[in-house]
């Protein structure tokens, strides 16, 4: 509807008409006065619209003529959206574009739309086709034909559909940007669509073009939407920008800021962050996700106990290229968020943006919200701030906070400005440290003793047991104790089951670890027929638990709550390579020992066949000497015992270094902060 204000000529015409009317009144030409008065009345109440659509002089700015001065574009979230029939189109193919309002039926008068390259130089691309109903007028911008479109009449319209043909010489992403005017002084500039990928025609024809994802589809690519196109020649004077630097301005001085990982506000490096500003009874909440997180939402909860459940949450969710605000109440089951029971008018979206996948929103909440009989009194109450973000949505709520979640360490009154810190991560750190000590350290060493040192330190015992068995038992009891304690600690921290790759493999490991010593209590005797079955079962259970435990540790590196560096994976890979290499060397020694022992046994059998004589023919002194020789042989270590002991010493030292480094990474997480 591109509209313009009355010009100076228009005002002069009105003044002339008014003067003429006064003259006619003196002449008592009443009939003419009435006609002129009607004409003047129509001029005064006209919207001064451009019924033929936007002129080509606004191709760059996409601004109505009257924009500027006291009439500025809206900086709130647009109720109108630009929707495409597909997210992929082949070169030279046609795409349908819909300009619609939300809620359905919301009408607008004028519009202007262009398709621009998402990357520099942001040129206009493609061509629009004339509409069948005649509501669209085509424009020639940047010396190209029909590359922009506008309205052909300023009448109200709930929806406009336009066909756009992609260029045959362009590959890449395009974004449709539009200006939509709802009334003379209410219009939005630079409303973006989701990006559309222009591909080679043979690629797009290989499979049917996908249809747009529904807002709550978990596969919706929220990170692909881009910011509205704002021409370089125009910057809205009152536009609010949520830049990396400005968000943190005033934190701890004029507003409370809190985000994760803990302490990120001081370094301005939060993965997700919130801010609360209080001015009298005005409570303003700001939320922002981090770069590169592919967040599907960012949320802030107000909690009595720093645990999820029965909390009032503010959620900012990108849907169809714009940010929607939801006020939710998490039930006692923290996986359930009931939006319908929270008065949605208790919160109002003031400003929002979605720039390169970074969600930002500014929300004003009422000081008092009552939901399901619970009152959230922001004036007088004290609440934990609980920041969370995730990469998926559910049908009627946000999904699991797989990107991260952190509650504040203590409840605060939002009006009292202070430095807000996160809750203690001590139990999480202890859990990780104990599991590393158990499964990287004691288990690895215990397996080495049991597998390769049964014929070492022969004749030497501790507490009545051979050395290898005493060390093996001590190390495995330590593993069992550390594992059980670590599992209890994480349950105390979470107070509920959270199922993902790390927790599932960890649970199986704990079960196997718990069973192993119980099975050892029922170990059959050395000569029992069932002993081989026990040996194989004990071997399989121990090795399976060890492998799963190391896999679970690998999975833990990806957990947001752990805050571990990604390069920790390489340290774990180094440990696995070292551990396997040592096993290989020990196995080679073991094979050589078996070969030599088998050779010696064969020689003795042959010697016995040649020199056979009756035990009865031997004197008592000769029999006693033979028994002593056999006893001495049984007490001798297998060959290469010194090499095995030396390799064991090297393995133990390197293993301790691995364990110490990994535990430090867990205890000091996030370790990157020490080097900032």
UniProtKB/TrEMBL annotation:
Residues 267-390 form the DOMON domain. Residues 44-212 form the Reelin domain. It is found in: Membrane. It comes from the Eukaryota. Its cofactor is heme b. Pfam families: DOMON, Reeler. The chain crosses the membrane at residues 433-453, 474-492, 498-522, 534-555, 567-592, 648-671. SMART domains: B561, DoH. Its main location: membrane. Keywords: Electron transport, Glycoprotein, Iron, Membrane, Transmembrane, Transmembrane helix, Transport. Residues 394-592 form the Cytochrome b561 domain. It is a multi-pass membrane protein. PANTHER family: CYTOCHROME B561/FERRIC REDUCTASE TRANSMEMBRANE, FERRIC-CHELATE REDUCTASE 1 HOMOLOG-RELATED. Belongs to the FRRS1 family. This is Ferric-chelate reductase 1 homolog isoform X1. The lineage of its organism: Eukaryota, Metazoa, Ecdysozoa, Arthropoda, Hexapoda. The gene is LOC108615405.
